[in-house]
Amino acid sequence: MPPHSVAFRTATSSDVADIHALVRAAYSKWVGVIGREPRPMSVDYAEAINAFRFDVLMVEGRMAGIMQTTRRDDHVWIENIAVHPTQQGRGHGKSFLMLAEHLARHEKVERVRLLTNAAFTTNVALYQNFGYALERSEEFMGGSTLYMCKHLN
């Protein structure tokens, strides 16, 4: 069997509908866990695409995941990473985290930061296994938001 075609590219405004659909699919598993739709499911991506950098992961010509980032004063902020449910568990989340580190080094900053819901245990474990440390926890909508950071060498 030939290797899969996998590539990153920068998203454009023509990707907004696909980004919205992918994010809704990726986060749908958490609705029952936290009792509501996670906030990324209700973002206006037509607006967000102009305010953030969006990197898209394409697998076999189909959108498999997205990462939404922005450069802040002293770090790269990951606003969102979403991988389509059919593509989860294949290392794509790690690939996005590696890309975020690459972006931080390119921007000449030494940290990557993000937040996640404490109930998203597989996500928390991924970030911790990839070297992210908890900076603080904050109560939010009946749960806890974890702010995490990775210092780059």
Describe this structure in words.
The chain has helices at 16-27, 31-34, 45-51, 92-106, 121-129; strands spanning 6-10, 53-59, 62-71, 76-83, 111-117, 133-140, 143-151. The chain is an alpha+beta fold and 153 residues long. It has a seven-stranded mixed sheet, sandwiched between helices. The longest helix is centred in the middle third of the chain and has 15 residues, at 92-106. The N and C termini lie far apart (39 Å).
Task: Summarize it.
It contains five helices and seven strands. The chain is of the alpha+beta class and 153 residues long.
* Series of H and E elements: EHHHEEEHEHEE
Placed side by side, the strands forming the largest sheet appear as: 1-2-3-4-5-7-6
Helix content percent band = 25-40%
Give a count of the beta strands, DSSP E runs of length 2 or more. Answer: 7
Poorly predicted spans: none
Main sheet properties: 7 strands, mixed
Distance from N terminus to C terminus (CA atoms, Å) equals: 39 Å
C-alpha geometry: globular
Structural class: alpha+beta
Q: How much β-strand is present in the residues?
A: 35-45%
Can you give the mean pLDDT?
Answer: 94
Number of helices: 5
